[in-house]
Amino acid sequence: MSKILIIEDEEAIRRVLVRILCEENESYEVDAAEDGIKGLEKIKEKDYDLVLCDIKMPRMDGVELLEAVKKIDTEIPIVMISGHGDMETAINTMRLGAFDYISKPPDLNRLLNTVRNALDRKKLVVENKILKKKVSKKYEIIGDCEPINLVKIMIDKVAPTDARVLITGPNGTGKELVAHQLHDKSERSTAPMIEVNCAAIPSELIESELFGHVKGAFTSAVKDRAGKFEAANKGTIFLDEIGDMSLSAQAKVLRALQEGIITRVGADNDIKVDVRVIAATNKDLKAEITAGRFREDLYHRLAVILISVPSLNDRRGDIPALINHFAVKIANEHGNAVKYFSKEAVSLLQEYDWTGNIRELRNVVERLIILGGNEISESDVKAFASK
């Protein structure tokens, strides 16, 4: 049921608006207030999907109420009701965040169309929020030990900015989860996040993969092709295992970071891109710089913010939560009932040396669920999780 609030000091107009909306759709729940102060009180007490608000009112006018409401809830659509002499003010309220305005006396079709459009917009905002929560859940970082909590704090501080981030840590620690969280919590979350595994792409193809190519640039270039940087425009590009990137590709990435410009392989013209770069590596890039395998200037461009993801051995206290998370996830994937782990089994797994980190733990949990009993016991761990 859509909840609508009408704020109007003229009783006759207020009653007409309430009646029209109630007759238009029985699912509308319509409240009314005779001035801005009482309207604001109602908004603080109840979550409305739409507010219709007069501009000229005693005590608190519509403009003041609009500004006050936007401090409470930036997403609630507010439609201004304007008299003939208030049209300029009504138009100005659009700049302050009003959804629309209608003039007095309200035209029935105009009123109802505006109400429907505003409610549709609010519904879309809610659906997008739900979708973003689902996406965030997919890339949730499990655990609350101090090392991983420090990572979460860093993410919350850095994500809303456009700062470039270099994520470091051993293989299997979840560096890609950190990258996704940075994107999902950023202002770029509605745009694409493009992932590139630099270690999986042959060195002779990495430049074409990142920057695209034009037809005839090389033997297999049978048509023009956009690269990953162009695909990530207005969004985020995640360069995983950047320590494995060739020096020639590093030089082009550096130019993209410095100037916001890329050039397709075989092309002469430049292409402007607006991309946030997040990189990750399991290598010691300072040692790679010393060995001449990584550009120092690129390192300093990438490492505006450094986030170090701890190994699983450094956050053993999170292992019980991770086991439970994987047990539920694997059961859902297989369509089976969730198998639980005994305290003894969990304690034994906490003592293991997890050189493969979280990725290895997930594999072991899946193996135990497949091969173990209805409840995973200490003997199951000894039998099937041998290191």
UniProtKB/TrEMBL annotation:
Keywords for this protein: ATP-binding, DNA-binding, Nucleotide-binding, Phosphoprotein, Transcription, Transcription regulation, Two-component regulatory system
Question: In what residue span(s) does the Response regulatory domain sit?
Answer: 3-119
One Pfam family name is AAA_lid_14
GO BP: phosphorelay signal transduction system; regulation of DNA-templated transcription
Single GO MF descriptor: ATP binding
* Top-level lineage group: Bacteria
**4-aspartylphosphate: residues carrying this PTM:** 54
Q: Which residues form the Sigma-54 factor interaction domain?
A: 141-370
CDD domains, sorted: AAA (cd00009)
* ATP-binding keyword on record: yes
Protein name (Swiss-Prot/TrEMBL) = DNA-binding NtrC family response regulator
Please name the taxonomic classification of the source.
Answer: Bacteria, Pseudomonadati, Bacteroidota, Flavobacteriia, Flavobacteriales
